[in-house]
Design brief:
By secondary structure, the protein is of the alpha+beta class. About 50% of the residues lie in helices and about 10% in strands. The protein has helices spanning about 1-15, 15-20, 25-30, 35-45, 50-60, 75-90, 95-105, 125-140; strands spanning about 65-70, 70-75, 115, 125, 145, 150-155.
Length: about 160
């Protein structure tokens, strides 16, 4: 019996969509960030951690992706409206990265993983998709971390 269960779980793991997913760059799945309406709106705002989160919400609200939230599938435009409302009520001066780790990994009540399902059937962790998009935004606009006093400081030099 235990051997059968082990085989079953190994089979499930190996046949899960993530097991076959190629590491396709995010931009190929949802299009170039610079050409998006979300980026145009972002450029009209002051660059803050809050505006970065708004950019991510706008970016995925218009994307051809399905949000799997605890087994329920939502159209991204609907999910974006809920996310904007939730951001307005719960944002407390976190960095965009902190916000993603705090709120964009698991469902609030059942603690189930949040997934993004792309049109080609590829499934990715919602948190990882948002972190990839945030990293892409940082590469486009230049990345600065807020300092203790709230002013921007230069990022630490990266070692190769």
């Amino acid at each position: 019996m235990i051997r059968a269960l082990k085989f079953f779980f190994i089979f499930l793991f190996l046949t899960h969509p993530l097991s076959f997913a190629e590491d396709v760059p995010l931009q190929e799945l949802i299009g170039p960030a610079i050409e998006s309406e979300a980026f145009k709106n972002f450029q009209d705002r002051e660059v803050t951690e809050y505006s970065k989160i708004l950019y991510l919400i706008d970016r995925f609200g218009a994307a051809d992706v399905t949000v799997d939230y605890g087994g329920y599938h939502f159209h991204p435009a609907f999910a974006a409206r809920i996310a904007r409302w939730f951001l307005g009520r719960h944002y407390r001066d976190e960095t965009a990265r902190e916000w993603i780790y705090k709120w964009c990994n698991k469902t609030i009540h059942q603690q189930q993983i949040i997934w993004c399902i792309f049109p080609d059937g590829e499934t990715r962790l919602g948190r990882e998709v948002l972190l990839d998009a945030l990293e892409n935004l940082h590469q486009i606009v230049g990345h600065t971390e807020p300092s203790e006093n709230g002013e921007a400081k230069e990022p630490a030099a990266q070692s190769s």
